[in-house]
Write a structure and sequence with these properties.
alpha+beta; single chain; 3 strands; GMP Synthetase, Chain A, domain 3
Length: about 90
């Protein structure tokens, strides 16, 4: 399947998060407030620079675990049919 566009992935993002919650709840808890920042080829960047603005804040260190990025990549693949590399970023 073709690599999705960022707009297409944003349109399906709730489906991706629902899948992640059902298959890896710990990763979902750590990643659900990340923002889709960019999609360059097969690399998706999930940005957490605004996460501290949310109620209770968000520790990027908690989210920045390879197994969580892999679980999210698995969910993206199940929902879209495309395998992406997920990069977690705390912003510039």
């Amino acid at each position: 399947m073709d690599t999705p566009t960022l707009a297409g992935l944003k349109a399906r993002w709730n489906d991706v998060l629902d899948d992640l919650e059902a298959t890896h709840r710990t990763a979902w808890l750590a990643l659900f407030d990340g923002r889709l920042s960019s999609l360059d080829g097969d690399t998706l960047v999930l940005d957490f620079s605004d996460a501290t603005k949310l109620a209770g804040g968000h520790g990027f260190e908690r989210a920045n675990r390879p197994q969580f990025a892999e679980a999210l990549a698995d969910s993206v693949e199940r929902v879209t049919g495309s395998r992406l590399t997920v990069v977690l970023s705390a912003g510039a």
